[in-house]
Amino acid sequence: xxxxxxxxxxxxxxxxxxxxxxxxxxxxxxxxxxxxxxxxxxxxxxxxxxxxxxxxxxxxxxxxxxxxxxxxxxxxxxxxxxxxxxxxxxxxxxxxxxxxxxxxxxxxxxxxxxxxxxxxxxxxxxxxxxxxxxxxxx
Length: 138
Prior knowledge:
The protein has one helix spanning 3-16; strands spanning 28-45, 48-50, 56-69, 74-78, 81-85, 90-95, 98-105, 108-113, 118-123, 128-133. β3 and β4 form a beta hairpin. It is mainly β. The protein has one domain (22-133). Strands 1, 2, 3, 4, 5, 6, 7, 8, 9 and 10 form a 10-stranded antiparallel beta sheet that branches. The chain is built from 1 helix and 10 strands, in the order αββββββββββ.
């Protein structure tokens, strides 16, 4: 085989990378970090939130990282505490405020809006909610 063909073939194969590795199937389809500076405690019932207390400043900020990979698994880091959810153990939904992720763990539930506007912890045992936001609600 002429040297030119060997050189061309080796350059082509090196440009393609490792052909035996196969496709990467776990690329993140959603990966964001949010910082929250305000917190509000409320009560809730089937009609929604009510009896909300005063909005308090959070310092340092409450940092939330979420990554949903191409397989549908989610890694959620809540201010240093990491949680892993397999596909099907959390959901994505939409309401009048936008798209959000919804996680359930026993009596605790969490809603995280995809635009980062709010993170809501729902304590369904006590019917209380803690709302984290990056901006003041008014």
